[in-house]
Write a structure and sequence with these properties.
13% of the residues lie in helices and 33% in strands. The chain is of the alpha+beta class. It has a 7-stranded antiparallel sheet with strand order 4-3-2-1-7-6-5, with helices on both faces. InterPro entries: Vid27 (IPR040458), VID27_C (IPR013863), Vid27_N (IPR040979), Vid27_PH (IPR040768), WD40_repeat_dom_sf (IPR036322).
């Protein structure tokens, strides 16, 4: 009987502590029989912890390097070097080596070693008592069982647990670390009579195995170039999803083409062949509603509505189409599929055209063909994947070759995933208001300050020279001049960061100016009786650095300058424009010259050089609302944020002597927009629908070099220099335990970023972010794979 049976909920209790059990002292060794000594010291002093993950019934074995007092750790350039994490799974071949009366050693396999010879050893310190070590060992095996069974160990009998553990131990003993690895069952294949097939029929072994005589499947999109990327489906023997056959909806078939069907297996970072010959159909089920169906003679593999959140991506050179399939019940991404077209050359072009038209018609409830020819061509380019991305070495961290700087690591700070807040800054935030959450972030330009709104209070934080945040003060009880408290829905720093302009929820005609020195609202501005204020932006990109009094306001169908020095209403009438049509303006941004870019509910982008004239350029949209927009200081680039993607637009008109779409109509010379999105395979891996926050360029005197945004708990940073060179997937990620509310760069650099969570705020440097492949290899995240 397990020791755990006598401890009840002490280990697996439903508390907030992510750590189940810990061995507080030991040494970590890398075992490699091919090396001279066969064993290399990795951490001289370390702790071993079994930790929960965000995925139910999944746990990690975490080995953390410990520093003695006075020991220098400043040479570490990445916190990942101080921690090794391993998913507790049966294939880990975890076992305790030697007699319980002798030295205590824990062994497990290195799953990144194809030979099966290498592994890890944790030599437990002699001060650790036997009951603690036995508890750690039993907990590890119990975690493996829960991952395999997908349920709590408390719901099964002791006999079933014992049978599982005996089987795992027997296989590990028969194939010890240091010898060639024998075949280990896949993590989802049951190891005992308790079959997971009974729990979930979709996890059964595929009904149709790969044909050993068939050639290795071609990779339809750029494969990861790490060691596992070269594995064929035969070598890696991935478990393929055996989904129940879907239904073909009734409707008119718009297109039908032959292709090969692949699915992305995140464990080997590779697309694997599911079916060599399938038929892909586009079906119009009703007005402005379309379905993608992939089938063969025996079954329907995929049947799903066509929508923009599929992250549709076409690669012309590979003749492929990649997309994400979502669970119709939970709304979460399930699989990343790829079609490699095998029909007549050009068949994929017609398929791409129709997919684009279907997405547009679904979003706008109108036919794509009603648009002007040049606008159709512009929108068609959005879905093209830049061919320069084909050989992108994604396993290597994105580097800025032009920069040389020494990264500083603050080991005293903990990430939001590490547990309860302990910093003074977070303690102050927690006192800002019971029940309130952080909602807004404003980063200062003139003074090194960040302002975080929580309810009717504002926390003020100072930026330190070593890229940290230090609490400065709290502004309490934001009130109107009439004494009514409110929580601002929009804030903007003004007049060299000495004041803040705020918008009040439910009040679309007034603005409120707070004097930051006194910490209270000192003026209320009646903008206009009739026109509403949807958004406010500074006169120029960095107007906050100047004493400028005026600012720009945006309504749903108007734009205007606001001058608070005017008597009565504050709109400057000769610098305003009102449209009769309801354009649905949503957001705006200004360049260093005061040129204006405005986004709309339909995804359109209008570009102005003055406020009282018609737009010089109008870029059509797919129908997905633009929720955020930013420009570079020189106005050469615009970054527009939609729910599932970003659009990067080069505003310079080719052959126009350096003029941009702000000064002259682009007409038929519209650029090819770069669609920045997460790779479809990464969307499925992250496990949640993409919903980007407004993306922003890095700020300061130097040229912009990075872009930041977030989706759910993930912060995303694009390398702007490499994006301009065609590397559209050069991004790094950091994942938190909670949703990211807002994010922005520290003024004057691109390496430091301020991240706001509902209960926390911190400044991080770019070395805290990792490439997706690095995150997978370090096992800091659990792959929530549905197969």
């Amino acid at each position: 009987m397990f020791l755990l049976r006598n401890l009840g909920n002490l280990v697996f209790g439903a508390g907030n502590n992510d750590s189940l059990v810990e061995l507080s002292s030991g040494q970590l060794y890398k075992i490699d029989p091919r090396a001279g000594s066969g064993k290399q010291l990795t951490f001289r002093n370390a702790a071993a912890t079994i930790r929960r993950t965000s995925t139910p019934y999944n746990y990690q074995l975490v080995i953390t390097r410990l520093y003695e007092e006075g020991e220098d750790n400043a040479d570490e350039d990445d916190l990942l070097n101080d921690e090794r994490t391993f998913l507790l799974d049966a294939k880990l071949r975890f076992r305790r080596v030697g007699d319980r009366k002798g030295p205590s050693l824990l062994h497990w396999a290195d799953l990144e070693d194809d030979s099966g010879q290498c592994g890890w050893e944790f030599a437990v310190d002699s001060t650790i008592k036997e009951p603690t070590l036995a508890l750690f060992e039993d907990t590890a095996y119990t975690c493996m069982f829960e991952r395999m069974a997908g349920k709590s160990h408390a719901d099964v009998s002791d006999d079933e647990l014992t049978a599982f553990v005996d089987q795992v131990k027997a296989r590990a003993a028969a194939n010890p670390i240091g010898q060639r690895r024998k075949d280990i069952q896949s993590p989802r294949t049951p190891l005992s009579a308790s079959s997971t097939n009974q729990r979930n029929p979709e996890l059964r072994t595929p009904q149709q195995s790969l044909n050993p005589s068939s050639p290795a499947p071609a990779t339809p999109t750029p494969a990861f170039s790490g060691r596992n990327a070269s594995l064929t489906s035969q070598q890696s023997t991935p478990v393929r999803p055996a989904l129940p056959s879907a239904a073909v909806p009734e409707g008119m078939v718009l297109d039908s083409t032959k292709a090969q069907l692949f699915v992305f297996d995140i464990r080997v970072y590779h697309f694997v062949l599911m079916q060599n010959v399938v038929t892909a159909e586009l079906i119009e089920t009703e007005a402005y509603q379309f379905h993608l169906v992939v089938k063969d003679a025996d079954r329907v593999w995929v049947s799903q509505p066509i929508e923009d959140r599929m992250s549709p991506t076409f690669n012309v050179e590979q003749r492929s189409f990649v997309w994400v399939q979502y669970d119709p019940v939970t709304g979460k991404p399930l699989y990343t599929w790829s079609l490699k077209f095998t029909g007549e050359p050009g068949s994929e072009a017609e398929f791409k055209q129709l997919i684009s038209e279907c997405v547009y018609a679904t979003m706008n409830k109108e036919e794509f063909k009603k648009m002007k020819k040049d606008e159709q061509e512009y929108l068609m380019k959005i879905y093209e994947e830049d061919p320069m991305d084909v050989d992108e070495p994604e396993e290597e961290p994105a580097e800025e070759e032009e920069e040389e700087w020494e990264e500083e690591v603050d080991t005293a700070r903990q990430d939001a995933t590490d547990g309860p807040d302990s910093d003074d800054e977070n303690a102050h935030l927690n006192q800002l208001g019971a029940g309130s959450k952080n909602s807004q972030l404003a980063v200062g330009y003139k003074n090194d300050r960040s302002f975080v709104v929580r309810g009717d209070k504002i926390g003020v934080f100072r930026h330190t020279d070593d890229d940290q945040l230090k609490f400065s003060t709290t502004i309490n009880n934001i009130r109107t001049l009439n004494g009514n408290t409110f929580s601002p829905r929009k804030i903007m720093l003004h007049e060299q960061d000495t004041s803040m302009v705020m918008m009040k929820p439910g009040d679309d005609h007034n603005l409120y100016k707070m004097d930051l020195e006194y910490g209270k609202v000192v003026e209320e501005w009646k903008v206009d009786e009739n026109r509403t204020v949807q958004e406010i932006v500074p006169d120029t990109k960095y107007a906050q650095l100047t004493p400028a009094k005026t600012l720009v306001g945006i309504g749903h169908n108007s734009l205007f300058r606001i001058d608070p020095r005017l008597a009565g209403t504050k709109i400057v009438e000769n610098e305003s424009k009102q449209y009769a049509s309801k354009y649905g303006f949503t957001c705006a941004a200004t360049t260093g010259k005061g040129e204006l870019a405005i986004g709309s509910e339909k995804g359109e982008i209008r570009m102005y050089n003055k406020l009282n004239v018609r737009a010089k350029t109008n870029l059509p949209g797919l129908g997905d609302p633009i929720i955020g927009i930013d420009t570079t200081e020189n106005g050469k680039y615009i970054i527009a944020t939609c729910r599932s993607h970003l659009l990067l637009i080069d505003t310079e008109i080719k052959g126009a002597g350096g003029q941009s779409g702000f000064q002259k109509s682009m007409g038929g010379s519209k650029p090819q927009p770069k669609r920045l999105q997460l790779k479809p395979e990464h969307v499925a891996w992250l496990g949640s629908e993409i919903n980007f926050t407004p993306a922003r360029f890095s700020t300061g005197d130097s040229e912009e070099s990075a872009i930041i945004t977030s989706t759910g708990p993930h912060v995303i940073r694009w390398n702007f220099r490499r994006v301009k060179a065609g590397k559209l997937y050069d991004y790094t990620i950091k994942t938190y335990a909670d949703k990211v509310v807002a994010d922005n760069f520290k003024f004057g650099q691109d390496r430091a970023m301020i991240i706001t969570l509902p209960e926390n705020v911190e400044m991080i440097t770019k070395n805290k972010l990792s490439t997706p492949v690095k995150m997978l290899k370090s096992r800091n995240s659990i792959v929530n794979s549905p197969y």
